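Title: Comparing notes on inverse folding

I've been comparing how different people in this forum approach sequence design from structure. To keep things fair, I'm posting one structure and asking everyone to reply with a full sequence. Here's the target:
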């Protein structure tokens, strides 16, 4: 199973710089082996709302993007519910020296690890660095 963080998931729905790379990377993952968490859905909604506030996305397009993301999740991804052990692991990750993790990213890593993900797919360079420092399987989807 592969866990998609928000940066990767957003690139699948929003037309952005990494959209083609995300689609190509996802094609190499076997069907039925992709997951996101409820936290990913919250962060996706936050990303879309921020784009609307910045006037980079029209409210109607934002609503369609959220609907498209929800449909994609329902049709193609396993949805993981963060649990108490996920929050506990995230706290431990945040306490680790030199990770520079933000709370939401620590939760992504914790959910992925606790649910046995083979890798976290992301475009977030800080998440990649932190994951590697923590020994979490993070697959860099960042173009070189």
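Reply #1:
Here's my take.
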């Amino acid at each position: 199973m592969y866990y998609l963080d928000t940066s990767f998931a957003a690139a699948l729905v929003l037309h952005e710089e990494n959209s083609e790379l995300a689609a190509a990377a996802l094609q190499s993952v076997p069907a039925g082996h992709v997951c996101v968490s409820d936290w990913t859905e919250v962060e996706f909604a936050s990303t879309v709302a921020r784009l609307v506030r910045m006037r980079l996305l029209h409210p109607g397009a934002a609503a369609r993007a959220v609907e498209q993301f929800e449909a994609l999740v329902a049709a193609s991804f396993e949805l993981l519910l963060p649990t108490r052990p996920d929050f506990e692991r995230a706290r431990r990750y945040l306490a680790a020296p030199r990770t520079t993790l933000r709370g939401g990213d620590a939760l992504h890593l914790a959910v992925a690890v606790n649910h046995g993900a083979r890798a976290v797919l992301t475009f977030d360079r800080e998440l990649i660095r932190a994951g590697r420092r923590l020994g979490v399987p993070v697959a860099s989807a960042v173009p070189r």
